[in-house]
């Protein structure tokens, strides 16, 4: 698998080069070249911001089609708790029954994994030999962001797998053992609110492999079950194991809320996360034990692959929290089933030069050119900022005259010279 596989992709035929995505990309991973957007894969974190704001729907997330589930003998659905929030006054049992009618043989809820991680995090925070504040590892877009932009904070990342990865592995191997079949015959499918989860299932961080066989968008599943969901009045089973604490993870603040004895904060929206992590690097944040970071505004309910209004979804989650006030079920989890088994390494993004000496010269050239540019960060040049354009020029990806202000000055100088020649 390509190291830089990304779920977020660009359809050049639909792109009009309008610069909307350029201005909103939080990691400056987009350029406009030849009137078309270009995504720099080394900088993209699959947050999906460009998907939200593209007026031409040129940015899309690669997800699996629902029909892929039939490639497996036994099919397991793993619905994210954000899935429940797409419906007003939802009965979770009926919704899960609708998934069975769609073709899934079994449902395993991600909320169970959330309860497991919450319990383990409380245990870890109670110990003294840890780097604080711990930063949640549940959002793969944020983990990727830290690897790229804040590598000094990697030791702060919670050393636990996401609820999805924990439940996916348990579902696959427990089912294979129960049915006496190969685990390869068990298809595990996540019903996802975001593109970053697609990427993490293909190129996982902190574990050697993901046991998620496919990722289907919430929007797609909502569409598939629509014809019969509204007709259901009962499920015939009370098989939901969701608790208020697990359901709460769907919205910002849900994970940190379960750390009752510790000082925790929650921040959502990737630009807000970046500002907080910058302050954390600069030692401006103290006396905090845990930081919950969500790339999507509002938390997972605000993911780009959902269909409901983010704020209505948050209200729906609050209703479900009140409805499902019950203690989490007890699950036996070995430490290796929860902890990350591989160290998280910083990402080496685009290098300036082939050696230190060349890189220093290029940095000096970038600084010199950046001072020459107007500093307006207007985006007209096809780069998100003047500093980004300066770097692109030095790397050979752009021209100094791509800046409209420098171009106008050169044009003015040229016209003056032409007038002098005429005289």
- Run of helices and strands: EHEEHEEHHEHEHHEHEHHHEHEHHHHH
CATH architectural label of the largest domain: 3-Layer(aba) Sandwich
By secondary-structure content and strand pairing, the structural class works out as: alpha/beta
Number of strands: 11
Seen as an oligomer or otherwise, the chain set is: single chain
Quickly list its features.
423 residues, alpha/beta, Alpha-Beta Plaits, Rossmann fold, 3-methyladenine DNA Glycosylase II, Chain A, domain 3, four-stranded parallel β-sheet, three-stranded parallel β-sheet, 41% helix, 11% strand, globular
Task: Explain what the structure shows.
With 423 residues, this protein is of the alpha/beta class. It folds into three domains: 1-62, Alpha-Beta Plaits, CATH 3.30.70; 66-338, Rossmann fold, CATH 3.40.50; 353-423, 3-methyladenine DNA Glycosylase II, Chain A, domain 3 (Orthogonal Bundle). Helices cover 41% and strands 11% of the residues. The chain has 17 helices and eleven strands. It has helices at 20-24, 49-53, 81-84, 92-102, 110-126, 140-149, 163-179, 195-202, 218-229, 244-247, 254-257, 270-281, 310-323, 335-338, 356-372, 386-395, 404-422, and strands at 8-10, 30-33, 36-39, 59-61, 74-79, 106-107, 134-135, 186-192, 214-217, 264-268, 290-294. The strands form four sheets. It has a four-stranded parallel β-sheet, sandwiched between helices. A three-stranded parallel β-sheet has the order 7-11-10. β2 (30-33) and β3 (36-39) form a beta hairpin. α5 crosses α7 and α15 crosses α16 (386-395). The longest helix is centred in the last third of the chain and has 19 residues, at 404-422. The protein is globular. The model has no long low-confidence stretch (mean pLDDT 91).
